[in-house]
Amino acid sequence: MKIVVIQGPNLNMLGIREQHVYGPMKLEQIHAQMKEFATQNNIEIEFFQSNLEGEIVDKLQECYGDAQGIILNAAAYTHTSIAIRDAISAISIPTIEVHISNIHRREEFRKTNMIAPVCTSSIVGFGPFGYHLAMMGMLQIMQEIQAVQASQEAQQQAPQA
Ligand code: DQA
Question: Which of 78, 80, 126 to mutate to test the pocket of ligand 1 (most atoms within 8 A of CB)?
């Protein structure tokens, strides 16, 4: 199983930007923790960060046929990007949206969310721990999908009455 973790604009500035909102942890540290969890659970993991909307769309499209799950923090594009929303819809891969801060408790403009309706679930306001929760959630989703596939295969192989 392969998970791709996609981080949007300014998340490369974690540890520097607005520490009172996002905390002191750097993106590399978050990724190192995710990598550890992935290794322990036999998951292949790839990380991608971009400040550009089109590059995020390209990366989502590349996931088609390559990844089984996506963990996405679209950052500011969450509130504006129909292009990212459409890319998520197009590829039909389970996608968990993460926000470090609780976007519902902040400025009004952060309450608009273009991405959430096309994601499998959203995790907000847990700080960097949200990424760990997303990994656990993705593992659960993958196990459920595999169980459904196994039961469908068993039904196909069973002799017809
Ligand atoms: C964020 C919340 C967004 O509103 C903001 O633009 C970000 C980070 C978060 O993780 O809390 O850049 O996605």
Answer: 78
Among the listed residues 64, 137, 78, the one whose alpha carbon sits nearest the alpha carbon of residue 107: 78
Residues contacting 87, CB < 8 A, separation 6+: 56, 57, 60, 61
**CA atoms 105, 107, 110, 111: torsion sign:** positive
Query: Residue of the nearest CA to atom 13 in ligand 1?
Result: 75
- Alpha-carbon distance of 96 to 126, in angstroms, equals 14
Q: What is the pLDDT of residues 32-64, one digit of tens each?
A: 999 999 999 999 999 999 999 999 999 999 999
Helices assigned H by DSSP within 64-128: 82-91
**What is d(CA 110, CA 104) in angstroms, rounded to the nearest whole number?**
7
Residue ranges and CATH numbers for the domains of the chain are: 2-157 (3.40.50.9100)
Kindly name the residue from 22, 77, 131, 132 that is annotated as catalytic: 22
Query: pLDDT tens digits for 62-83?
Result: 999 999 999 999 999 999 999 9
